[in-house]
Amino acid sequence: MLLLGIDTSCDDTSASVVENGRTILSNIVSSQSDIHSRYGGIVPELASRRHIEMIIPVVDEALKQAGISSTDLSAVAVCNGPGLIGSLLIGCSFAKAFCYSRNIPLVAVNHLEGHLLSVFLESRSPEFPFLSLVVSGGHTSLYLAEDYGRYVELGRTRDDAAGEAYDKVSKLLGLGYPGGPVIDRLAEKGNPQAIDFPRAYLPESFDFSFSGLKTAVLQFLRRENLLERPLSPDSELIHDIAASFQAAVVDVLVRKTEWAVKKKWIKRVTISGGVSANSGLRKKMLGMGKEKGVEVFVPSVSLCTDNAAMIAAAGYHRFLKKDFTGLDLNPRAYLPIDSPQIS
Asked: Where are the alpha helices (DSSP H) in the chain?
């Protein structure tokens, strides 16, 4: 059974062909980083326009690399939210037209469910139930996954997502966009205990908060008169700032997950989303798992960031349940993982 996955939720145009929900035959991602980096963040209108230009070439390449034609497809799975509404509109409109012209089913997939199930594209995957930390530029949430399509949100960020905090701190440091990869690289050479940045543990819940940490970095730079004279990327201080900031983010993410393990008595954990590609987070989460006897599952780096393979994988299980959507499908910028997929 072959599904074409389509994801245009943010600034990457992606199409993928996945067999039986597990085997990736192709996974094409057209990045827009070079467009948005000059602005220090994503410009929604530019993202939408680029999706229009790239959606057909990306889908064509996905089919070509998979060695199939459109007549071999069983269905199309498309991300209809959450995300940038203009970007989502391009993917949904294309998918509806594609399915109509070929008379094949259309499956709507929540972007968060795609991230959560991305680990099932690996040879090693968890049994249900498991705990899932989805952490990216737009989302930071902790879920209890009971089965395919059955997810309970345990906690979410109350303000900035972790990846958003990375991007904003990177901008403060003059490091550009996206901030996650560059801060991760700098942190490798820094002292994570050099600066005592705050951790918002919020012990009464599984929620997260990173806006205070971002403000603490700003105040530190202001006190040290570093806002007017950007630091050299080779300086010892910028490595220490990056390492200390990253340690504060990672500590909270891992600690919250550990609390959920104890509270729910579930010793299987997955992490996914763009920030799960962070080397510091992967190392500390795996270390926690080893120390506490918890199985930790982390997708390959290529499956952490936005991609259509995870949309096809999630769509496969909805396809098996005949959970199809009509051609009146609309994208939704805000779409909790437990919401109905059709607006």
From this structure: 33-36, 44-66, 85-102, 111-117, 162-172, 179-187, 211-223, 236-264, 279-292, 301-304, 308-320
Summarize the confidence of residues 234-240 as an average pLDDT: 93
CA distance 24 to 33: 24
Residue type present at position 229: R
Q: Is there a shared CATH topology between the 2-117+303-320 domain and the 124-298 domain?
A: yes
Superfamily of domain 2-117+303-320: ATPase, nucleotide binding domain (3.30.420.40)
262, 254 Cβ separation under 8 angstroms: no
CA dihedral sign, ordered 171, 182, 302, 126: negative
* Bridging pattern class, strands 13-19 and 75-81: unpaired
Domain boundaries, the chain: 2-117+303-320, 124-298
Instruction: Supply the angle between the helices 211-223 and 236-264 in degrees, to the nearest 10.
Output: 160
The residue-averaged pLDDT of 59-88 equals 98
Positive/negative CA dihedral, 289, 290, 293, 299 = positive
Choose among 289, 276, 210: nearest CA to 249.
Answer: 210
Q: Give backbone dihedrals phi and psi of 199, rounded to 5 degrees, phi first.
A: -120, 120
pLDDT in tens, 171-180: 999 998 899 9
Is the separation of the CB atoms in 330 and 81 below 8 Å? no
- Report the share of the chain in percent with pLDDT over 90: 90
Angle at the Cα of 203 from the Cα atoms of 200 and 207, rounded to 5 degrees: 65
323: three-class secondary structure by DSSP: coil
154 half-sphere exposure, CB direction, 13 A CA radius: 21
Q: What CATH number labels 124-298?
A: 3.30.420.40
Residue 320 has pLDDT above 50, yes or no: yes
Confidence check: pLDDT of 341 > 60 = no
pLDDT value, residue 45: 96
CB 27 within 8 A of CB 313: no
